[in-house]
Specification:
The structure holds 2 protein chains of 2 kinds.
Chain A (H helix, E strand, L loop, with lengths): L3 E5 L3 H13 L3 E5 L2 H10 L4 E5 L7 H11 L5 E5 L5 H9 L3 E4 L4 H9 L1
Parallel strand pairs in A: 1-2, 1-3, 3-4, 4-5
Helix pairs in contact in A: 2-3, 3-4
Chain B lengths: L2 H11 L2 H58 L5 H5 L9 H12 L7 E5 L5 E5 L7 H8 L9 E2 L3 E2 L5 E9 L3 E8 H4 L1 H5 L9 E8 L2 E4 L14 E3 L6 H7 L2 E7 L5 E8 L6 E7 H4 L1 H52 L4 E5 L5 E4 L1 H7 L3 H4 L4 H5 L13 E9 L5 E13 L2 E10 L1 H54 L9 H22 L8 E4 H16 L3 E6 L6 E4 L1 H18 L4 E13 L2 E10 L6 H5 L18 H11 L3 E6 L5 E8 L8
Parallel strand pairs in B: 19-21
Antiparallel strand pairs in B: 1-2, 1-6, 3-5, 4-5, 5-6, 7-8, 7-12, 8-9, 10-11, 11-12, 13-14, 13-17, 15-16, 16-17, 18-20, 21-22, 22-24, 23-24
The chains are: A alpha/beta, B alpha+beta.
């Protein structure tokens, strides 16, 4: 029943929280603080949901979305950001990202996406 | 300027080198003339005295010679020769005596010859009638008898004013032979002769007679004076008096006519007489006078010539300096007239007495018009500028009025100048409208730039804080929600987990506001019908304002469509209503009006005018109105994030906000927003 979730964010606090919360809820959570490592992980394995931060050192969220969805169009990408008005958000959504969650976001919303 | 300074200045400008040469030249001419005249005078006097001395000496020796010759003529006569003619008492004796006398004096030098007895009676004479009575003759002859040589009597006066001299030759036993000499005929011509022609020169023969000097000869200017005219011996001014006192000498004195004369005298040897040669000073000084006149004329001519030269030179210098000054004045006049600044000249009362072309142009009065005004009418000040001390200046900025009533700012440079004894005020005024405008614009832009930088800095700070807080809140909210899931349903609402989630929600509102301020809110861009939006806000606003405050919504006549986020714009109105409520605790009126605004940047604009009748704001408050956490409400009464959020939202819509407020007079916010391009014509 557990789903596979990949989280790419340069904020360790976010990564820890999501891993603890969603593993506690019975899901498998893989986290990457490095954007390039995150993209490689996303391409290497199949995940039910990929949570991507927009602003990161190295590759940004829009680039990861574009490359990931180009290789694996079925992957469901959820953007998480503290800057909802970032132009990269529009680019990522245009590339096929599923939705945008503004930090702080509700766990319930992520679970909704997992269940869809 | 004090008269002493003026005099000093005038003196300094004089050409002293030329004046010095002039003075020295004239002094030298004068000195030379006076020195040479003095010397000439002295020389001439000496020569005059020498001449007179020579003449006196000559005359003296001539008289001596004459007397000697007279005496020498006598010794040839002897009594033998006389008595050869017979006895004096015989009848033919007189005839014989007459022959004898003619024989011994063929030239008839003697006026008469007489033979007298020792007792003084006349024995014979030629002519028979003597020119003087025999008794008078005897009186002269008897004192001279007894000596064996011829003796001469002194001059004496005979009948008819005739002057005689008698030569007596003693004849033993017989008596004496007496020869009568007419002095007028024999002696005086000798005295009258003068070696040079002269109008006033003469020689006087004098002798002492008691305490007076007696003139013996006839005088040139007074006939019949011989032996009758005298002069006091003690009057030392008289040459005649001096002559009877001293043997010889020279002097300046007064003659018998009371004329000033030069005289030289000396005694005649063998007599009691003195000869005086004299001449009028007026005559001898005539060449000197002529020379003096000539020198005087020469001095005057030289003086006049040098004065003329000096005057001409001074005039030339003055004319040159005047020409220079005129050139300077005309140059200065040209500068002043066509200067780019206003130049006014005021008298001591402040009346305009001179104005340049620029003044006429800028004030709009024309030159004649300006000259009938005083300074107050241009400056609008209650008083004319007081005359300053000469040389002092004053620079002030003020507002001047044109003829048409409009005003313009000027920088006035005021200075007092003295022309003659009058004090004038010179005003040079520069129209500083452009400068003022530029200064104000610069100030405004600087202030704006400062404001923008400040907003940017605050925006960056706000954005950063919101970002980091949101990350932390994400973790907190996630853990909270996880905890909530582990509790039985309903148990978590009022418990610690519920508290955590409420606090997170509160913190999230703050970070949302900060994000809005830093323009990081994500807008749902849609066409928004503003009139409809306004209408739809009524209920919400009414609820926020409460019953005490009147709500007045004024939609625009035509449709106004904006491309933006209607929900956020409604939030803007709600926040403004909340602020208005706080500003009007006693109630009032809250008005929101939609108006068209002037187009900008090729787009139509609208103005959302939001006004309350509340407490208003001071200027210091207005400047910081949109800063996050700036509040006038005090702690706990408002977070100070409403207006910053409105500011961010309006900016994200491409708009701007203008605030107008005064304490006690309410506040008006004008929110300018660009309208959607396609919808502007709808």
């Amino acid at each position: 029943l557990g789903k596979r979730i990949l989280v790419i964010d340069d904020e360790a606090m976010i990564l820890d929280a999501i891993k603890i919360i969603f593993e506690d809820l019975g899901h498998t959570v893989e986290v990457r603080a490095n954007s390039q490592a995150g993209l490689e992980e996303g391409l290497r394995a199949d995940y039910d949901l990929v949570l991507v931060d927009i602003r990161m050192p190295g590759k940004n969220g829009a680039q990861i979305t574009e490359e990931l969805l180009k290789a694996k169009p079925d992957t469901r990408v959820l953007l998480i950001t503290a800057y909802p008005n970032d132009p990269l958000v529009g680019r990522a959504l245009a590339a096929g990202a599923h939705a945008l969650l503004k930090k702080p976001f509700e766990i319930a919303k992520v679970l909704d996406f997992l269940e869809k | 300027m004090k008269p002493a300074f003026r005099l000093r200045g005038w003196l300094r400008r004089l050409p002293w080198d030329i004046i010095l040469v002039y003075l020295v030249f004239n002094a030298m001419v004068g000195l030379f003339a006076s020195f040479s005249l003095e010397r000439l005078h002295r020389d001439m006097r000496n020569r005059n005295f020498d001449d007179l001395n020579s003449i006196a000496e000559l005359k003296s020796s001539q008289i001596s010679a004459w007397l000697e010759a007279l005496q020498l003529a006598a010794p040839r006569m002897t009594h033998d020769e006389i008595f050869a003619a017979g006895s004096p008492s015989s009848p033919g004796f007189n005839r014989s005596f007459e022959l004898y006398a003619r024989q011994i004096d063929p030239q008839r030098r003697f006026a008469a010859a007489a033979l007298m007895s020792p007792a003084g009676s006349l024995l014979a004479s030629v002519p028979r009638e003597l020119p003087l009575p025999p008794r008078a003759l005897a009186g002269q002859v008897l004192p001279l008898l007894g000596m064996p040589w011829p003796r001469l009597s002194d001059l004496f006066l005979g009948p008819g004013g005739r002057v005689f001299l008698v030569m007596v030759h003693s004849l033993p036993r017989v008596g004496a032979l007496a020869f009568l000499v007419d002095a007028r005929r024999e002696l005086f011509p000798l005295l009258r002769e003068w070696p040079t022609s002269s109008r006033s020169a003469e020689t006087l023969l004098v002798r002492q007679e008691g305490d007076r000097a007696l003139f013996l000869n006839d005088l040139r200017f007074q006939q019949g004076a011989a032996l009758s005219l005298t002069a006091p011996r003690d009057d030392l001014r008289r040459p005649a008096a001096q002559a009877v006192r001293r043997r010889n000498g020279v002097m300046e004195g007064l003659d018998y006519r009371e004329r000033r004369v030069l005289a030289a005298w000396r005694t005649v040897p063998g007599t009691t007489w003195s000869i005086v040669a004299k001449v009028d000073i007026a005559e001898v000084d005539r060449p000197l006078r002529e020379l003096t006149l000539y020198y005087l004329l020469m001095t005057i001519v030289l003086g006049l010539a040098s004065t003329l030269f000096l005057v001409l030179r001074l005039r030339q210098l003055v004319r040159h300096s005047l020409a220079e000054r005129e050139a300077l004045v005309s140059h200065y006049g040209y500068l002043a007239r066509y200067a780019n600044d206003i130049i006014l000249l005021l008298d001591a009362m402040g009346n305009i007495i001179e104005a340049n072309d620029r003044a006429a142009e800028l004030y709009g009065y024309g030159r004649a018009g300006l000259l009938s005004l005083d300074y107050r009418q241009l400056s609008g000040e209650p008083a004319n500028p007081k005359p300053l001390n000469p040389g002092e200046g004053l620079v002030v900025e003020s507002i001047h009025r044109r003829k048409d009533g409009t005003t313009f700012p000027v920088e006035a440079s005021i200075r007092s100048i003295r022309v003659g004894s009058q004090l004038y005020t010179q005003c040079i005024l520069r129209d500083i409208s452009e400068r003022k405008k530029a200064e104000e614009e610069k100030l405004r832009l600087e202030k704006q730039l400062q404001q923008v930088r400040r907003q940017e800095a605050i925006g960056q700070l706000a954005g950063g804080v919101a970002h980091d807080l949101n990350n932390a809140l994400t973790a907190i909210q996630g853990y909270g929600e996880l905890l909530k899931r582990k509790l039985p349903p309903g148990a978590s609402e009022s418990g610690p987990v519920g508290g955590i989630l409420k606090a997170v929600a509160r913190a999230t509102r703050i970070t949302d506001a900060l994000l809005a301020y830093s323009e990081q809110r994500r807008l749902a861009w849609k066409p928004v019908q503003l009139n409809a939006l306004l209408s739809s806000s009524r209920a919400t606003l009414q609820r926020i304002l409460g019953p005490e405050i009147e709500l007045d919504l004024k939609p625009h006549d035509g449709p106004l469509v904006l491309h933006g986020d209607g929900g956020l714009l409604l939030q803007v109105l709600s926040h403004l209503a909340e602020n208005a409520r706080r500003a009007m605790p006693q109630g009032g009126c809250f008005t929101v009006a939609l108006e068209a605004a002037p187009p900008q940047d090729n787009a139509d604009w609208t103005c959302l005018r939001v006004r309350d009748t509340g407490t208003g704001m001071a200027e210091g408050v207005q400047e910081r109105l949109f800063e996050p956490f700036f509040t006038t409400q005090g702690f706990g009464k408002g977070a100070g994030l409403g207006l910053p959020m409105i500011f961010g939202i309006v900016r994200q819509h491409g708009g701007r906000i203008a605030v107008q407020s005064e304490p006690g007079k309410g506040t008006e916010l004008r929110i300018f927003l660009p309208l959607a391009q396609a919808a502007s014509g709808v």
